[in-house]
Fold:
Amino acid sequence: MTNRLTVSLIEGDGIGPEIAAATVRVVDAAGGLIDWERVDAGMGAVQRHGDPLPQATIDSMRRNRLSLKGPLATPSGGGYRSVNVTLRQQFDMYANVRPARTIPGVPSRYQGVDLVIVRENTEDLYAGVEHYVDPRRTAAESIAIITRFGSERVIVYAFEYARRHGRKKITLVHKANILKLSNGLFLDTGREIAKRYPEIEFEDMIVDATAMKLVIAPERFDVIVTMNLFGDILSDLTAGLVGGLGVAPAANIGSLDEASGVAMFEAVHGTAPDIAGKGIANPTGLMLSACMLLDHVEQRGAAARLRKGIYAALADPATRTGDLGGRADTAGYTDAVIRGMAGTIGQA
Ligand code: NAD
Structure:
């Protein structure tokens, strides 16, 4: 018997509260054994607490080690740091996991795509090591940091993810033909780790060739593991292959200490201020993020039921939302997801 788990829920800004309410409903209906602990972040938190990331929120995430997060508006000016960046640093979220899968009914250029990008999220050109080379600021330099430690933990995570999810192949993406030391270190680390997982096929691929193959034959990929910059670009590319950011889920995997980690699940899209409060937002990205959370905590039955409901509701324009060419509002779609879990979607 699986125990109930407490998960920190950050509803977020804009459409966040609407899609979070819909997601809580469907997780319950799917039989997810989750108790939600609601905490604040973003613009709402600035208004209520004068802080976009209150300490109580950090404490809750630290205690529960699991969180589901709606989109956050980063307040501009006022000296506030990006909450997303602060969270990444607080919890050392080193792996960003972005599945891309074609969903029947969702408009998309391709069929049969089912891949996952595991992106290293703390190093590389985004390590923040930049400076002007000369006093007149006519030249600038950004340094890409790649460490064996950082490479190892994200590549091990990718292999463990593949093993847990029955995935067959890892493609390590790099540019080691040119960046022989930094990218070479990532590649060498990958080759060493691959020997520990003989049941999983391992290949490496140069990033430019990967970009082309993703467009020509995305169905040939299974799990891609790569460094921060390439992962940033390729994961938006793969979201575009399968219907866009509106239906894209993500997980951020972090380490609190050596013994155990944290995981934060979120939709990839933003706060959609243009449609906030209208009841028409598409909650699929956050719902699929909740499926990842349920898989992560081994509540696989609930995850499978929820995915079944989502796919059933998305298959029919009458039950999907307007952004996907459908006619349903958020509540109507959510009802359809629940009916879809029971296999009664076509029935009144
Ligand atoms: P956005 O994703 O919020 O919106 C882009 C377009 O997509 C809009 O037309 C919007 O209506 C539509 N859209 C997005 N999600 C939708 C959904 N679930 N259902 C229906 N339509 C949807 O991107 P933006 O306008 O560039 O950003 C708005 C705000 O969100 C900014 O403050 C930005 O900083 C923030 N943001 C936050 C995150 C995050 O917290 N992870 C990510 C991206 C952007």
